Amino acid sequence: MPDYSVENELHSKGYNIVCGVDEAGRGPLAGPVCAAAVILEPDTVIEGLNDSKKLSEKKREALYDVIIEKAKACAVTLVDNQRIDEINILEATFEAMEQSVDDLKIRPDCAIIDGNRTPKHISVPCVTVVKGDSISMSVAAASILAKVTRDRLMYELAKVYPEYQFEKHKGYGTALHCELLRKFGPCDIHRASFLKKILK
Q1: Vertex 49 angle, CA 94 and 42, to 5°
Q2: In angstroms, rounded to a whole number, what is the distance separating the alpha carbons of residues 132 and 144?
Q3: Residue 200 above 70 pLDDT?
Q4: In the chain, at which end, N or C, are there fewer CB atoms within 10 A of the end residue's CB?
């Protein structure tokens, strides 16, 4: 379970305000990638907080509201499929992370980035933590905000493009989604750069 050990270590090094940063939606064939940045006070208790992938949708939705209420600051950024096709998914993910940090109403002294790659243009010092969403409370909180925000958008897009059944797979490359893609072809929110193998 995540705790504040990474945050506390950074505080001991003189970083007073630390944010956690994570993303959701790097892998899907459709829709945006989403990143979030969250600042939590190191004594903030959020029961059940964990990596968003280890929680049920119902639990993520409940935790989303608690995080919004208890966070000292938080921000979420979506980067759409056209931008992903233009600059590639890694750069689009970095762009979303960088923007989320910049949009925090309180400027952090340091950011904890989930993964092993540092966004190229991030405006604050940062550390990377592999599986950070299972280790750091603020990264786990960011993972939930990013996942819930993206899922909510995909439910809305499912109403616009009902034939693709986005409500069932959120744009990920499931057997159902690939079958529907071959049947109907791509729509406006599909990532063209992700479809070459599927639609060849």
Answers
A1: 80
A2: 13
A3: no
A4: C
